[in-house]
Amino acid sequence: MLSVILKNINMLVTREREKLLNALIFFSDQVLYPGKTKLFKLLNYLDFLHYQKTGRSVTGLQYNAWERGPVPEELYNEWKHPQQDFIQHFIKKNIDFQNGYQRQVLKPRKQFDATYFSPFELSIMECLAKQHFKENANDMSESSHFETGPWHEVYEVQQKPSEVIPYELTLLRRGNEEDQKVLDLAKEREELMSHYK
Question: Which of 68, 123, 172, 179 makes a 20 to 30 Å CA pair with 56?
């Protein structure tokens, strides 16, 4: 029985990894300027918007409250030293701009695989790609710092730079009954997962 449970946990982790890699492929193909910062912002929006309705993230990433906004620290570190599956999915390319600035972008080696995502997840991704299609990383940084957002709560209000931004913060300020149901679902899932780590 324990081996079956552990296998299921491993499958969940593997599925989240595939979702992360495929979300990066999707956004890299669907927006202008798919540099590291913009991709991190899009993943952040995807995960927190999905959490608001379901009590779980899409990618399994945790985001830290850095000075310039929420950053998936684990992915940030991997960007410098990618794992083998990351290398199999992407080529990192440097793009030079006229002002001497350089941006590193991802060029997918593989096609996007929508089978990893629910229709709801795909709809969020499509909306985000349309909404932020032309924006650059600076434009997106401004919108991720809004005063009622989770980053602002951790970085500015609690004054805890570099700390993990709890997903629950996306719900707590609204305080409605529906949000409490989502929090309860998230807590149940977290307790279940903690028994099998």
Answer: 68
What token pair was written down for 24?
């990066």
Residue pLDDT tens, the chain, 197 long: 444 444 444 445 689 999 999 999 999 999 998 999 999 999 999 999 999 999 899 999 999 999 988 999 999 999 999 999 999 999 999 888 777 778 888 999 999 999 999 999 999 999 999 999 998 877 776 655 555 589 999 999 999 999 999 999 988 655 666 666 666 666 666 665 565 55
User: Is the pTM higher than 0.85?
Assistant: no
- Alpha carbon dihedral 109, 110, 111, 116, in 10-degree steps, equals -140
